[in-house]
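Pinned message: reference record for Peptidase S1
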Amino acid sequence: MPQRGRVPHALTLGRVLGAALALCLALPARAQAPAAPPDKRVPMEPTAWPFTAIGRVNVVQGPAHRSHCTGTLVGPRHVLTAAHCLFDVRLDTWVKPHQVHFVAGQARDLNGGTAEAEAFRLAPGVDLRLAARPARGAIAPEMIGRDWVVITLRQPLALRPVSWIVLPNADLPGGRPGAVVALAGYAADRPYLPVIHRGCAVRIDAPAPGQLADLCESMSGESGAPVLVLDADGGAALVGIHTAVTQGVRVGQAYRSASGVGVAAGSFAAALDEMVKPESVKPK
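Predicted structure (tokens):
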């Protein structure tokens, strides 16, 4: 259940791309798990944009079944996250919109706004049913680039959303001078305060078009977390979302890793262009 400086050289990223893939919340136990790498994530107070637009996607699957992932407000009423966060593996089907709530900028018992989901739009062709999985807890490789969903909220949030940018085949931050890559989300070890790894790296359209491979510290609960490009002038844009760890190390009931995979913005940009209307709410 979801809780849900330099660009590394090509050889290092190649090893990441060759790693076995599994959902960050359901990696099978390893007989000889590698030692956990030094944790480069740091907690932060989400008081400034773009972090005020990042929040928890809470999913209530039943009285004793609750989970969370990370989502990003990309429009006044639209939140982008990982599709598998809304899939109930117990029932082998998608949850209903009323079971999903978004909490923006949560910091302990404070937040920047909350809203219940009204509907959600899944990627075309996404299939996470057990019959479509190569192994329990994993998803088929061809589904990695489809592991996204856009949630429509019942009411708009008066917050500044985060825009997205499509950068085909980019190798970041090296391909964008002055930019910093960051991954921010609500991890299992700090579920009510976001953590950020600032200064990591990502390759777009790798290992396949529409996917991404990141070298960012992450943990269970950060499924759907935005992979951000932060510019020196204070600008920020989402280039994709992180959906799973690779070579995960078990930490309690969760997994942590220094590398991961996800969905590049090119996979969902057309849907966002269609769904997200000009802002009608003055941002804070």
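Pinned by admin. Summary line: The helical segments are 10-17, 265-275.
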